[in-house]
Amino acid sequence: MSAYLALAVSVGVLAVIDTWLFGVPLATFLPGLVWVSFIAWGCFFQSGAGTKGLTTAIVGMAFGALVGVVAIWALMGPLAGLGDLAGPVAVGLGAFVICLASRVPLLSTIPASVYGFAAVAGATFLMAGGETMDPVGAYIPTVVSIVIGAVFGIVSELLANVLTKKA
């Protein structure tokens, strides 16, 4: 099988498993967070795949999610007095921190951190469901979803390699 077709088959089959995993056995703990898994999976490949892609996706996205938690906390607390500017200022400060942190080699892939920031923000709003937002409570489910997605990335790469016809 060509590498192109092998990767398509691998990703397609594993996408079914990933979606089922989040929809059935993990639905209570990770409600609706399959999209975070897919972002991490994409980040894995965007970051070069292999060990580097796995590390970048997990570390970068988890860091970005942590920055997102702090930004949402600031939005609800110290920045709340800014009214309509609280959200934009919180996001701007988060982006500033992510860019500064990119000097650290493990955090040098800025998009990975941005994906994590966005993922925890989305998870926070999704999990709040009209209630008070709890970014800290959304952090662990987000990071677990990130790890699952990155692992699906490396498994899909390995499976594609197995399926690829060797010359």
Automatic annotation (TrEMBL):
The keyword Transmembrane helix applies. Keywords: Membrane, Transmembrane, Transmembrane helix. InterPro entries: DUF1097. The chain crosses the membrane at residues 25-45, 57-76, 82-100, 112-130, 136-160. The keyword Flavoprotein does not apply. It holds the Pfam family DUF1097. This is DUF1097 domain-containing protein. It comes from Alteraurantiacibacter lauratis.
